[in-house]
Automatic annotation (TrEMBL):
Alphabetical UniProt keywords: DNA-binding, Glycosyltransferase, Nucleotidyltransferase, Toxin-antitoxin system, Transferase
Catalyzed chemical reaction(s): a thymidine in DNA + NAD(+) = an N-(ADP-alpha-D-ribosyl)-thymidine in DNA + nicotinamide + H(+)
Record family assignment: Belongs to the DarT ADP-ribosyltransferase family.
Record's protein name: DUF4433 domain-containing protein
The UniProt record lists the keyword Transferase: yes
Superkingdom, natural source: Bacteria
Active site: 48, 155
Source organism of this protein record: Pseudoalteromonas viridis
Lineage of producing organism: Bacteria, Pseudomonadati, Pseudomonadota, Gammaproteobacteria, Alteromonadales
Domain DarT span(s) in chain numbering: 3-202
Residues annotated as binding NAD(+): 7-9, 48
Length: 202
């Protein structure tokens, strides 16, 4: 069963993603010296530097490109409210949409977790026949998630890089941002569909 997945990033990072023709993991991006507009918690990124991966090709979580199984993620809510490491709000955040099968065709070192991958007790699973165990429709895509915050943050992770060509859609909050995105990808060989989805935001 293939499942849609969503990676959020700031629009300021889109030009670099297109030029590099891929999404790099945080570890690889740092190794390559690429500048990035961070939108996440720095302390969580530090924890992910040390969190071991026991499936796929091993390493640590920071070596993998993370995706959620839904738009309007818990992290986007944090971004919307603002935190010490990023105060820019959600309006310029993009949802880069693909699916598990498309990414796995280009990267054999993938796995998923049943809850937030950063947690000690998250199960790391590389048997994709088990992806049906995730309750995507009733929990992960639920609009009100206070009672199952951890489950909503289940992750799909791909080792080191995800090709730009696997991104099928770019979800944005407003038509103004859609216009900016279309201008940024105008000359790209691969141009995902840009969709205005205010319901994917807070």
């Amino acid at each position: 069963m293939t499942v849609k997945v969503s990676h959020i990033t700031h629009i300021d990072n889109l030009g670099s993603i297109v030029r590099q023709a891929c999404l790099w993991s945080d570890a690889k991006r740092i190794e390559l010296g690429l500048v990035n507009q961070n939108i996440g918690y720095s302390h969580i990124k530090q924890r992910r530097l040390a969190r071991p991966v026991k499936v796929a090709t091993g390493g640590t979580i920071v070596q993998y490109v993370p995706f959620n199984f839904c738009p309007r993620s818990v992290m986007l809510f944090v971004i919307h409210k603002g935190h010490l490491d990023y105060q820019g709000g959600q309006d310029r955040i993009l949802h880069l949409i693909s699916d598990t099968d498309t990414i796995r065709l280009t990267n054999q070192h993938c796995f998923f977790t049943d809850i937030h991958a950063d947690l000690d007790y998250a199960e790391q699973i590389d048997d994709f026949s088990r992806i049906t165990e995730l309750d995507i429709n009733r929990i992960i895509n639920e609009r009100y998630w206070q009672d199952f915050k951890e489950e909503k943050q289940a992750e799909f992770l791909a080792f080191e890089s995800v090709p730009w060509a696997t991104i099928q859609q770019i979800g944005v909050k407003t038509q103004a941002i859609a216009n900016e995105v279309n201008a940024l990808i105008h000359m790209a060989a691969h141009k995902p569909e840009v969709v205005v989805k205010p319901q994917w935001y807070y």
